[in-house]
Amino acid sequence: MAPGLDVTDRKRWPLTSWLEFAMGAGTVMLLALLFAIMLRQPFETVDDLIWLNKLRGDSFSSLLLSPAWMVKSSFYRPVAEILLKIQYTFFGLDPRLYRYTQFAIILVLLWLSSRLIRQLGLRREAVFLLPVFLIGSPFITGSITWLSELPHVIVLVCFVVGLIAITSNLTEGRKLVVCTLAFAVALLSKENGLALTAFLLYFARSLPGKATLAFAAVIASYFAMRALVLGPSMGLSAFDEDGGYFFRFLTGAERRQMFPGSAIYQLYAYDVLAQVAAILFRATAWGQIVGGINREVVIETASTVVIVAGTMAAYRKHGVVFVILAVVAIGGTVFSYAYARDRHLALPALAYGFALVMTASELSRRFAAMPAVPLFCLWLAWAAQAGLALRAIDHLATQAIEEVYRPNTSPLNPNLPVEVWTAARERALSLR
What is the mean pLDDT of the segment spanning 395-417? Predict the structure, then answer.
């Protein structure tokens, strides 16, 4: 019998097995649909192609000492670059082949997540809730479909690996080794990997000194390499980016004009608060306040209500693990200080998703006669959201092909070689 499953559940409410079947079948169908839609995705017309073009001229040996994405950028992400370079070596500019690797990583993430759910002793139905949340969340969808957002997915995998380690039966020393390695890989993939320092909360009682030294060594080494590779551009801000501000969407020029000098910190504070409002209530999108109430606002707010209602029960049973999830879900928004983007919330959203699964599972135990019903209702809501999200992804892909690729025989970005654009355009047009 799976951990967390009450033996009396089926005796008291025999329809539990039918709900499980419906959730399992629906989840598989949504994953199959996700894969089919991913195969119809062209390269993102700017970020994907710029990065692949850079990797064309890079050797594997040079990746450890080169900026990521562009020849001149403020990003240092060697792990993500190496993984993407391996794919480019075999796949060239055929977007469909990359999608197999992307989907395989998604399946690995889901397998690791299901293992974590079992180790936490949550109800078996909870295994089906997380996949539909990942597909339906507006903060994760872009990361699992855009090639240039691969670094986010690597960080997600590292986060789950660390959680599996601290909830396992490994010795404390081995747990620290796994968490330190996961932290290092995450940090070398994306700057928000720093959020995985939340694992120190677990080691605060068992190995406080060793854990602090291990994580400090990783951080010091990372910033030393970052300074060596990026030099004066090693700062993390990107002030020239467009972004939302209350009910407006500001260009980079407008942001510079409205927030000169030290006033920029007001904008940074707003961006972080806007991202917190987004992750909890979907009150903002890309930093801009959402006008009115839509389905995303309703489902995100309802999910937050579930988390709040089940917080004490989850904390009593899972202790520091639940605290880590809360810290990452809220604290991870800090990495959007320079400009708010939905895709910047992939890691906080995953932590939020685990908190939702955990609290919903604990709350469902209060429904002695039909404990599967609350989880099924949540699953149904997020499954509907996932279906709508997949439709939106496919629509945006069609829009990119018809409105960008098809009418433009020359690259819109002057930094992109014509031959790269031509090859990507031919592949894109062949997808529809």
Answer: 93
Averaged pLDDT, 64-70: 88
Q: Kindly report the pTM of this predicted structure.
A: 0.94
Cα–Cα distance for residue pair 362/118, rounded to 1 Å: 14
Token digits of residue 409: 């025989």
pLDDT tens for 267-302 read 899 999 999 999 999 999 999 999 888 999 999 999
Q: CB of 399 within 8 A of CB of 377?
A: no
Contact 275, 336 (CB under 8 A): yes
pLDDT at 239 over 80: no
Q: What is the distance of C-alpha 362 from the center of its chain?
A: 24
CB 157 within 8 A of CB 347: no
Question: Containing H/E element for 244?
Answer: strand 243-245
Which tokens is 296 given? 């995303």
What span, in angstroms and rounded, lies between the C-alpha atoms of 174 and 26?
A: 38
Angle at 298 between CA 292 and CA 299, to 5 degrees: 145
Going from the C-alpha of 27 to that of each of 30, 33, 347, 348, 393, the distances in angstroms are: 5, 10, 22, 22, 18
Tell me the average pLDDT of the chain: 91
pLDDT tier at 429, thresholds 50, 70, 90 = very high
| Amino acid, res. 119 | Q
Cα 51 to Cα 68: distance, rounded to the nearest angstrom: 8
Contacts of 199 (CB under 8 A, 6+ apart): 162, 166, 179, 182, 183, 211, 215, 324
Q: Strand, helix or coil at 209? A: helix
257 contacts 267 by C-beta, under 8 angstroms: no
- The H or E element that residue 250 is part of is strand 248-250
Cβ(201)–Cβ(320) below 8 Å: yes
β-sheet bridge partners, residue 285: 288
What tokens does 423 get?
A: 């090859």
| Distance of alpha carbon 405 from alpha carbon 411, whole angstroms | 9
